Amino acid sequence: MAASSTTLEVKILDKEYLVACPEEEQDALLRAARHLDRKMREIRASGKVFGLERIAVMAALNITHELLEQDSMSDATSALLRAMDHKLNDALGEPENG
Protein backbone atom coordinates (compact mmCIF):
# COMPACT_ATOMS: atom_id res chain seq x y z
CA MET A 1 0.00 0.00 0.00
CA ALA A 2 1.47 3.36 -1.01
CA ALA A 3 1.89 6.04 1.62
CA SER A 4 -0.58 8.86 1.23
CA SER A 5 0.94 12.20 0.36
CA THR A 6 -0.37 15.63 1.19
CA THR A 7 0.76 19.13 0.38
CA LEU A 8 2.31 20.94 3.30
CA GLU A 9 3.02 24.67 3.51
CA VAL A 10 6.41 25.67 4.89
CA LYS A 11 7.70 29.19 5.44
CA ILE A 12 11.33 30.03 4.79
CA LEU A 13 12.57 33.62 5.10
CA ASP A 14 8.97 34.83 5.20
CA LYS A 15 8.17 33.17 1.88
CA GLU A 16 5.65 30.32 1.70
CA TYR A 17 6.33 27.12 -0.22
CA LEU A 18 3.98 24.21 -0.90
CA VAL A 19 5.71 20.84 -0.65
CA ALA A 20 4.24 17.40 -1.35
CA CYS A 21 5.12 15.08 1.50
CA PRO A 22 4.04 11.66 2.79
CA GLU A 23 2.00 12.07 5.97
CA GLU A 24 4.51 10.12 8.07
CA GLU A 25 7.31 12.51 7.01
CA GLN A 26 5.52 15.79 7.76
CA ASP A 27 7.18 16.38 11.13
CA ALA A 28 10.62 15.77 9.61
CA LEU A 29 9.86 18.16 6.76
CA LEU A 30 8.73 20.87 9.19
CA ARG A 31 11.92 20.41 11.26
CA ALA A 32 14.03 20.60 8.11
CA ALA A 33 12.25 23.78 6.99
CA ARG A 34 12.76 25.39 10.42
CA HIS A 35 16.45 24.45 10.35
CA LEU A 36 16.90 25.87 6.84
CA ASP A 37 15.01 29.03 7.82
CA ARG A 38 17.31 29.50 10.85
CA LYS A 39 20.46 29.00 8.77
CA MET A 40 19.28 31.38 6.06
CA ARG A 41 18.37 34.02 8.66
CA GLU A 42 21.83 33.70 10.24
CA ILE A 43 23.48 34.21 6.86
CA ARG A 44 21.25 37.15 5.99
CA ALA A 45 21.90 38.73 9.40
CA SER A 46 25.67 38.50 8.88
CA GLY A 47 25.29 41.10 6.13
CA LYS A 48 27.96 39.39 4.02
CA VAL A 49 25.66 37.66 1.51
CA PHE A 50 22.94 39.37 -0.48
CA GLY A 51 20.11 37.93 -2.53
CA LEU A 52 17.78 35.08 -1.67
CA GLU A 53 19.42 32.66 -4.10
CA ARG A 54 22.93 33.30 -2.76
CA ILE A 55 21.70 33.00 0.83
CA ALA A 56 20.02 29.69 -0.03
CA VAL A 57 23.19 28.35 -1.69
CA MET A 58 25.35 29.37 1.28
CA ALA A 59 22.88 27.74 3.69
CA ALA A 60 22.92 24.57 1.59
CA LEU A 61 26.72 24.54 1.60
CA ASN A 62 26.86 25.09 5.37
CA ILE A 63 24.32 22.35 6.08
CA THR A 64 26.06 19.95 3.70
CA HIS A 65 29.39 20.70 5.37
CA GLU A 66 27.89 19.97 8.80
CA LEU A 67 26.51 16.65 7.57
CA LEU A 68 29.82 15.64 6.00
CA GLU A 69 31.64 16.57 9.21
CA GLN A 70 29.26 14.32 11.15
CA ASP A 71 30.00 11.48 8.72
CA SER A 72 33.73 12.09 9.10
CA MET A 73 33.44 12.07 12.87
CA SER A 74 31.40 8.90 12.65
CA ASP A 75 34.07 7.26 10.45
CA ALA A 76 36.82 8.42 12.81
CA THR A 77 34.91 7.10 15.81
CA SER A 78 34.35 3.79 14.07
CA ALA A 79 38.07 3.50 13.24
CA LEU A 80 38.99 4.33 16.82
CA LEU A 81 36.64 1.68 18.17
CA ARG A 82 38.05 -0.91 15.74
CA ALA A 83 41.59 -0.07 16.86
CA MET A 84 40.56 -0.34 20.51
CA ASP A 85 38.91 -3.69 19.78
CA HIS A 86 42.10 -4.98 18.11
CA LYS A 87 44.21 -3.84 21.08
CA LEU A 88 41.80 -5.45 23.52
CA ASN A 89 41.85 -8.71 21.54
CA ASP A 90 45.68 -8.60 21.50
CA ALA A 91 45.82 -7.96 25.24
CA LEU A 92 43.41 -10.82 25.92
CA GLY A 93 45.22 -13.10 23.47
CA GLU A 94 42.04 -13.61 21.41
CA PRO A 95 42.21 -14.22 17.65
CA GLU A 96 40.91 -11.53 15.26
CA ASN A 97 37.40 -12.03 13.81
CA GLY A 98 38.01 -10.69 10.35
Q: Which keywords apply here?
A:
Double Stranded RNA Binding Domain, single chain, alpha+beta, 98 residues
Model description:
With 98 residues, this protein is α+β, with helices and mostly antiparallel strands. The protein has a single domain (5-92), classed as Cell division protein ZapA protomer, N-terminal domain (Double Stranded RNA Binding Domain), CATH 3.30.160. The protein is 63% helix and 16% strand. It is built from two helices and two strands. The chain has helices spanning 26-46, 52-92; strands spanning 5-12, 15-22. The protein has a two-stranded antiparallel ribbon with strand order 1-2. The mean pLDDT is 85.
Please give the structural blueprint:
Layout: E1 5-12, E2 15-22, H1 26-46, H2 52-92
Antiparallel strand pairs: 1-2
Helix pairs in contact: 1-2
Mean pLDDT: 85
CATH architectural label: 2-Layer Sandwich
Number of helices: 2
User: What is Rg?
Assistant: 21 Å
What is the assembly state of the chains in this entry?
Answer: single chain
CATH domain fold name: Double Stranded RNA Binding Domain
* CATH superfamily annotation: Cell division protein ZapA protomer, N-terminal domain
Produce a short descriptive summary:
This protein has two helices and two strands; from the N terminus they run ββαα.
